[in-house]
Design goal:
161 residues; alpha+beta
């Protein structure tokens, strides 16, 4: 079986037009790359997909292949917009993995919304939303802009190397 790093390299070549060095939206919101290890970050809007897609699709290797779908929002993000964008990102990632011949059941998905401020009621609605991948509902992780991938994973009880 291929190594996750080989799949990341293939995705980097296949989607070279969408590769970016950071997951960020302007100067206001970004995901710090600490904890990403070997990775490729794809800018959602450069993937030329129908519909709205999340800001960043990140493929990273931590012994296994991890897919992080990241939506960067300002204050009080719309839960339904974020849900739609993350779901479209997950659908893209599944198709990209299938195109590379990677068994999609051999990876972990994480859905993250970064915000610069959020009202408690919007946080509650967003945290109750689920993104469906392979028939399984995944919780949306919510964090402030500027936090690292490693810190968000730790906050939600996931360990990474």
């Amino acid at each position: 079986m291929r190594r996750p790093s080989a799949v990341i390299e293939e995705l980097q070549n296949q989607y070279s037009h969408a590769v970016v060095t950071q997951c960020r939206e302007g100067r206001t919101c970004r995901l710090a790359p600490d904890g990403l290890g070997t990775h490729v970050i794809l800018k959602g809007e450069d993937l030329n997909r129908p519909g709205r897609i999340c800001d960043c699709v990140i493929f990273t290797a931590d012994g296994e292949l991890i897919v992080a779908l990241v939506e960067l929002k300002g204050k009080n993000p719309s839960a339904s917009d974020a849900e739609e964008q993350l779901q479209n990102g997950a659908d893209f990632a599944l198709q990209a993995l299938q195109d590379c011949g990677w068994p999609y059941h051999k990876c972990t998905f994480h859905h993250i919304v970064l915000h610069s401020g959020i009202h408690i009621s919007a946080h509650r609605v967003l945290s109750n939303k689920k993104i469906t991948v392979r028939g399984q509902g995944y919780r949306i992780m919510i964090a402030r802009c500027g936090q690292s991938f490693a810190a968000i994973m730790a906050q939600y009880g996931f360990s990474i190397s």
